[in-house]
Amino acid sequence: MKLKEKVVFITEADTGSGTAFLHRLALEGAHFILNSASGGSEIAENLDRVRRGGSNVFVANADLSRSIEVNDLFREAEQAVGTVDVLIHNADLVKPALVETCDEETFLAVMNANAKSAFICTQAAGRQMRAKQSGKIIYVTSIHAEKPTGSSFAYSASKGAVKMLAREAALILGRSGVNVNTIELGPLEEDAPPFPSRLTTIYDDYRYKVPDAVLGTYGDLAELALYLASDGARYVNGADIRLDGGFLMHYSDRKMKKV
Amino acid sequence: MTISGKNAIVTGAGTGIGRGVALELAKRGASVAVHYNSSEAGAFQTKRLIDEAGGSCITVKANVASKEEIDRMVETVADRFGRIDILVSNAALQLNLDLFGHDDDTYDRTMNTNVKGYWQTIQAVVPHMKSRNHGRIILVSSVHSKRPTDFDPIYAMSKGAIRMLGRESAIELAGYGITVNMIEPGAIDVGKFRTGSAQSPELFKKFPGGRVGLPSDVAELVCYIAGDATSFMTGTAIRLDGASMLL
After folding, report:
1. To the nearest whole angstrom, how far is the Cα of A234 from the nearest Cα of chain B?
2. Per-residue model confidence as pLDDT tens digits over A75-123
3. Best of B120, B162, B172, B236 to disrupt the A interface by mutation (most A CBs within 10 Å)?
4. What's the CATH code of the domain at B154?
5. Confidence grade of residue B192 (pLDDT, cut at 50, 70, 90)
């Protein structure tokens, strides 16, 4: 059991990635603080399952881009399950809009959901981790922290911002025994990529742009998060790990593994 | 290079890098809109330097955290100059607070000026460039779009966001004849860092050439990118730091 008695905070528990983290890390003995957009109702079965397995679970529904709500959440969660050992920030709001025509409301919605929440949660979790001189922070970002989407610039800007937050936190919290890393996620089996674009062909035939033509799953994501959350990853800090099966390496269409 | 006769907006031109860029563009014959917000005296000093050099400029005030003020600024410049060829976005906020010193408000102030402001300024000039199928947008970013600062994480977040804003803008606006590039300066002598007359041994420890950058170093690069020889160059970020990030 790699996470026995560790408290894991998952910022978006109702999502596909949130569910995968919950089940995988529960098998390793973790307890949970879950921020759930449905207040737990959409994940009731999952909660039952991990509770039966022995995990303590605290469920909240906070706006993570507001310190006041996050501080309340951490205070209540501390009473219920303890302070945070592992922060998994998996906010991933996409709203297609072009640089030329996007409105301010859309831009701010995406930036706040993905980037401001990362800052606020890092600050709150960082205080607790600094106090106990240990912790792990994992941001699930995207290959679009590097590669433009051609359809959702605020999304990639938000992921670019989180990339730098991670590097900063790797320094300042690194001095308190905390490891901070990002996972730059590519397309997965479960969800079609939400980036329709007339500007880039990146997602045309995307399955075959993964060299082995096999897409990853949320299970693969959870395995990497488990590694980063465990003691075995103690020397991994300030890193961006691309999890895309080699998708972003693709260059030559004619060599795709397409039978 | 073909700067002469072009019209440019330089944001944050009341101080440091922005002043150096505005002055050099004007010396080479561009009409320059010297933008400022809080640095009014500085902007008039920039204007004085341009006037003395025989250049042509106007000053324009706007808070780039406000879309309304950006739009008004760009309309004012378009009315006065007739067209806009070059945008140099440079106005940025750096509060020098650490991870625990920042709060919701300082986060918003930094990001609204540095990221939202850069984006909405692009948005405001695009119609003026698109109509003529030509434009040069230059985003002054920082080495801290890749390298952490260790003194202001939100500033670095804003620069990380600008890196992707620049890349997205480049692919989106290329079809309109507009290029979008970024300059990533390291330490620039704008008061905090002094080059001095003698090169100190201490400087060599951080800068292989024994000096920090000058606003004129950035200005020279801006003038190159703003010229007509660079139509194929877009979506790039040029680190301009005397190789200090390589040490």
Report:
1. 20
2. 999 999 999 999 999 999 999 999 999 999 999 999 999 999 999 999 9
3. B172
4. 3.40.50.720
5. low
Tokens representing residue A195 in the block: 């980036």
Number of domains within chain B: 1
Residue A7: other Cβ atoms inside 10 A: 23
Does residue B200 lie within any of the structural domains? Answer: yes
In a domain, B115, yes or no: yes
> Residue A221: which CATH number?
3.40.50.720
Residue A256 has pLDDT above 70, yes or no: yes
- Give φ, ψ of A189 to 5 degrees: -60, -40
Residue pair B186/B240 in contact (Cβ under 8 Å)? The answer is yes
Parent domain of B173: 7-246
Q: How confident is the model at residue B200 (pLDDT cuts 50, 70, 90)?
A: confident
Residue B230 has pLDDT above 80, yes or no: yes
User: Which structural domain, as residue segments, surrounds residue A221?
Assistant: 7-192+213-244
Selecting among B107, B118, B155, B224, the annotated active-site residue is B155
- Integer angstrom CA distances of residue B50 from A136, B36, B45, B234: 53, 15, 9, 29
Q: Per the domain annotation, does A11 fall within a domain?
A: yes
Burial class of residue B202 (count of CB atoms within 10 Å of its CB; 0-12, 13-18, 19+): exposed
Q: What is the distance between the alpha carbons of residues A168 and A237, in angstroms, rounded to a whole number?
A: 11
CA–CA dist A197, A192 (Å, integer): 13
ipTM above 0.90, yes or no: yes
- In angstroms, the CA A158 to CA A181 distance is 16
Residues with Cβ within 8 Å of B161's Cβ and at least 6 positions away in sequence, in order, are A111, A115, A157, A158, A160, A161, A164, B111, B114, B115
Answer whether residue B235 shows pLDDT above 70. yes
Return the pLDDT at B16. Answer: 96
> What is the pLDDT, as a whole number, of residue A50?
98
Residue A137 lies in a domain: yes
Q: Does B2 reside within a domain? A: no
Q: Residue A148 and residue B168: Cβ atoms within 8 Å?
A: yes
Residue B177 has pLDDT above 90, yes or no: yes
Asked if A90 and A18 touch (Cβ cutoff 8 Å), the reply is yes
Q: Structural domain tally of chain A? A: 1
Q: Does any domain span residue B1?
A: no
- Restricting to A residues 59-78, those with a Cβ less than 8 Å away from any Cβ of B are 66-67
Q: Has residue A81 been placed in a domain?
A: yes
**Tokens matching residue A83:** 């302070």
- Judge whether residue A194 has pLDDT over 60: yes
Assess if residue A130 is contained within a domain.
yes
pLDDT digits (tens, 9 = 90+) for B69-124: 999 999 999 999 999 999 999 999 999 999 999 999 999 999 999 999 999 999 99
